[in-house]
Amino acid sequence: MCSNSLHRSLTPDSAQTNSAQTNFVQTAVKTQPTDLQAVINRTLRSLRPRLKSQSEQRGIQVVCDYGDLLAVECSAEIDQVFTALIAQAIEAVSPQADAAHTDAHTVTVQRPQVTIRTMQIPDPQGGNPRVVVCVADNGAEISLEEQSQIFAAAGKRSSSALRSCYEIVVHQHGGDLQCYSQASGTEFWVELPVNQARSLA
């Protein structure tokens, strides 16, 4: 499903990144060690029909750049997060896929692409590492105003699915969920603590 080539995705500005842990109020959920990359692969298989255009050569390209990750303690609802974010990325680039099919010989039509990166980052205090999953697309830019409201009920680009993602990642798992966008595309940045018990300490 994923090609092995690398793609430069957006890198979030540390000044923009919120510390969700400071506002973390955990909802009681049943968690278990989970292989997030297996969850992502399962999600991609379920969304495969949406990746194809009328012309197989001009469908949406998926690039996966997976790092070495520990299993993450999370609930089954984490599947909903990656389904929603990957579906959002596919929707963002679908107009490009249609344009490429309509005018397949025009070299200026950019191949629509969804990129998924995973990495593990250490806890600066040495206790509980965190896993990061980035879902990026090369679709149209989202304005700064829309980015700031994308997980809010009043946001123009918001949806119940994105609001649920924020609830699951931030409030149920003590993680962080951010949206970054510029002319080259948009990225959703999911950060989760590996160990839920330690995240409460």
TrEMBL record:
SUPFAM superfamilies: ATPase domain of HSP90 chaperone/DNA topoisomerase II/histidine kinase
Organism: Pegethrix bostrychoides GSE-TBD4-15B
GO MF annotations, alphabetized: kinase activity
Keyword Cell inner membrane in record: no
Alphabetized UniProt keyword annotations: Kinase, Transferase
Histidine kinase/HSP90-like ATPase domain location: 77-195
Keyword flag Chloroplast: no
Protein's name according to its UniProt entry: HAMP domain-containing histidine kinase
